[in-house]
Amino acid sequence: MVRDEAWDGWLRRSPSGTELLVWWQEARDGMRRVGRDAYRERLVALLSAASPRDCAAAGFGCTRRSDRACREPSVCRLDPAVPSAEEVPLREREGPVRGACGGFHGLWADFEVHVRFSGGDDRHRAVFRRDTAASAVRLWVDGVPVGSGADLDSYGYWLGGRFLVVWAEGPEDHPRQSYGPGTLVTRIVSVLIHDAAHGSARTLVPGPHETWTDPQVVLAGETLRVYATREAQAADVPDRILPAWPAPG
């Protein structure tokens, strides 16, 4: 097992981090003992309860370098600074930064995992697991499956520490639809938005006049604004404007 001794102080205070470290870095033995499916399910459960510093201490790659473990624990293991009111909406942290990065990656031969924390107090976390043989992606938010049966991208991002945005496969009958290589099989994509505060999700499907090839979602005050591309976002030409918060009652 490869261990970064610089994280020992943190791991002594974090049983969840220690368990994640052993489970991840002894993956071959774990899969041999309990089987691949059971191993991966347990890994998702551990990641769903982990903190950013647990992930860094366990040796996952981070948003700064996805292919290697944290190289600056002297900074990343420190308690994160409390964000000020001016720092809302909260952005994903990228290291070296106090409290560790806001996203982590791990890869084995037949599957990969990605974790995205919601920022600020890291109250919510999204865990993506992509099984490479089947090109299938599953998503859990705070340990609960989300988007069951949908073809999802293996990445997502948080808005305001509450809304998770993930691309999903677009409609087959869209007039601009085409197929090509990539995590998703279609050129026109849909958008899944999960509200972690209410545990609810909605999938936005583009209509025939909405060419969502690179959709961007922005939280603006009380609304979620959906743009077809980054260029449309820069020009502030949204395709849809939706209420961010559920209606009373």
UniProtKB/TrEMBL annotation:
Protein name: Uncharacterized protein
Upper taxonomic lineage: Bacteria, Bacillati, Actinomycetota, Actinomycetes, Kitasatosporales
